[in-house]
């Protein structure tokens, strides 16, 4: 295979293979041929006999009590099979509320609507055009209620989104919130370590800044899609989901069924990025299929993705005490705009919140992190699980302090960096986190110590760096099965979802490494909860580590059983008898299997009342970005001319895929930094289309983009590896803002970094502010 | 409703279609061809790209009725007897497909590009592919794939 590299800006990532040469090799994706021929399987392709198509009628008000829903015209339209509201749903699911942290989200609006775009009714028809037309004929009447949209206002607003909080019973740390009224705070997380008061009192310098990041959207090119069908044994859901096991358990809970009556099948995903987690359309199609006793499919449009899940907008106030060039104390207050339903927001608030002080060694820390309900589209995980919002703030802040103290931004960081063995804010000692190596490599690749051409005339040049880190969400479980057939061919069963990150290939490499076969020969069975075992979900870059460990254990188990079989049939140890012959000897024909299993859950200690724990996470991800920019001071236009992404990914399992993950993540965050923003007008989204919401195209990306993984090993990871899907996002936004200030002296504290904002800031700096 | 006759990936076919139906819908529902797929449905992403008489169109906007009497080629029509085209090979080798949802559109557009510019530079590649979006942002790999394919196609021609 020829390396397809050498194009401008693409570096060849070092290949470090081990043992059988399967881990560390750039194995082409197992499904590559299916993807380039258009034959890869997506839920989108599925059509079942007698299948009905559902189209959703959505709320037009941000907050209101439903007075009436008039479905008569829709019902009367020829070709309409049925129109369904929450009253119908309750006939099959009496308590139709779901969610991973709170059971707050109804399958269809129940008495109230909480955001514009909330599903209120569904039309079913065999012809999607008829269903769509009928949905447009539905009318609803609301008693509008005061609404709240801003996360800071939501702290104290008289407008309260939910009448009462409904935490899921499964989380002990949410129990105290049950039944709480008159609040929009879904979760507040607090951490106190050392004595920040004293640190601030004794500081030479105190800096305080506030940063905001905006609502943006995942927009996988395959929009949400789910199909449900009844079978003789229960219900099968085919869904573009990152969390098949969660879907199974949650649907079983809603129906009061045992898990084994719900089957969830997931083929390839056309992108996920955190959108397709937990329950999205699955409960709705399940209820509809039960109600009409026919298969039901719902495929959202691109526009409807804007009404399903966004990334959290966040406001972050950060305050630091500095003495002798050391940060001695830090206060962090973060407000997460969770939208109308909690989704996974409370987990982001806590499990990402505890890294808010950044990858620095700070003795005295306080964190207050709030998950807030507002009357907007619900917010959830998006490639970084809250980390990019935090890094945006703390790395901008770091740069502003260095600038003000006239310290070199690299040296200032290095002086304060969190090294292995030192305690992070939670008190957990850092381990296998190559933060300093990432910083050093970045500084070197960016040539930060060398003089720099600052441009001429109205074209100013600047450069900036930023480094961030993330804890893996914990504790979570993965289970895998490896099956060796009588001819020696190997199949892996696991519920990790390949949504483009290459997990099938990486997991095949793990199996192949242990069983000493080519990775290309391993078959990976896609998630099917009747067949593949439990996995918490494909999220937060957890799978390569957690599932990787489970897969490794399963393959080792199979290997041990193979050795036992060899002993049993009298083959001496270390002899080279083909696997097929072992089976032949035992079963007298081509028959039998060897089944290896592996299950993995890392150690974890929940935080105490002060948010402290000796074991917060099984591993740390580290990512940094450096950029060079050109700012046109006459227009405010910024061009990122060079971007370098460096990460600690442990050992790269598949160097080429690692590289595409880094650059893909960085480019996504580049879009969130430069151009993407969901625009709201009184809770109504005004740019719900690619015509107005522009994601990066091939012409937008930096001309030079280089990606690198530092030499490192994750001691507890499978073959030293750890997750990589998000690390490329961490440093992008602050690196660019830092470079902009370096170029033209203006500092932006609110994303995205548009030409207009820069131009306004430039004018203000010249004492000639523009009018609004 | 009307009946249209057209050539689909080299085969003569006919279909009964409604006036408002797009070609992508008809390919999916009547011919089980899923490689052209609707994403934005507004002509803005290129996921639904098909060739009509050799020219790339957005299948989400192109009415099926217009295909009457024409030659329609989809991604499924490129590889012959399981043998990938040089462009498909190059996409595969360069790792230019992540989730793969956008890939058929890029492969077809890359074909158009290389017909017009057998030895494209970066600007030509970017310009030509600017109408195709990839949310996984496999752009650097797509550029690399196009260059790889271009080199091989040129070598094959001489
Ligand atoms: S679906 Fe046709 S261009 Fe996007
Ligand atoms: S590979 Fe996923 S959208 Fe392009």
Rounded Rg of chain B: 16 Å
Shape of chain B: globular
The average pLDDT of chain A is 96
* CATH structural class of the largest domain in chain B: Alpha Beta
Strand tally of chain B is: 5
Strand arrangement in the largest pleated sheet of chain B = 2-1-5-3-4
Total helices of chain A: the number is 19
Number of domains of chain B: 2
Averaged pLDDT of chain B, please? 96
Identify every distinct bound molecule in the structure, by name, code or SMILES: FE2/S2 (inorganic) cluster
Secondary-structure-based class of chain A equals alpha+beta
In helices, the fraction of residues of chain B equals: 25-40%
Overall CATH architecture of the largest domain in chain B: Roll
Strand content of chain A: 15-25%
Largest interface: A-B, 63 and 62 residues
Percent range for helical residues of chain A?
A: 25-40%
Strand order of the largest sheet of chain A: 3-7-1-14-11-12-13
Most strands sheet of chain A = 7 strands, mixed
Give descriptors for this structure.
heterodimer; A: about 775 residues; alpha+beta; 5-stranded mixed sheet; about 25% helix; globular; disordered N terminus; B: alpha+beta; Ubiquitin-like (UB roll); DNA polymerase, domain 1; 2 domains; 5 strands; about 35% helix
Commentary on this structure:
The complex is a heterodimer of chains A (772) and B (158). Chain A is α+β, with helices and mostly antiparallel strands. In chain A, helix 3 (86-92) crosses helix 8 (282-292). The longest helix of chain A is centred in the last third of the chain and has 26 residues, at 543-568. Chain A is globular, with a radius of gyration of 27 Å. Chain B is of the alpha+beta class and 158 residues long. Chain B folds into two domains: 2-76, Beta-grasp domain (Ubiquitin-like (UB roll), Roll), CATH 3.10.20.30; 86-155, DNA polymerase, domain 1 (Orthogonal Bundle), CATH 1.10.150.120. In chain B, a hairpin with a 2-residue loop joins strand 3 and strand 4. In chain B, helix 2 (86-94) runs antiparallel to helix 5 (139-157). At the A-B interface, helix 1 and helix 17 of A face helix 2, helix 3, helix 4 and helix 5 of B. The complex binds FE2/S2 (inorganic) cluster (FES) (2 copies). One FE2/S2 (inorganic) cluster (FES) binds next to loops of chain B.
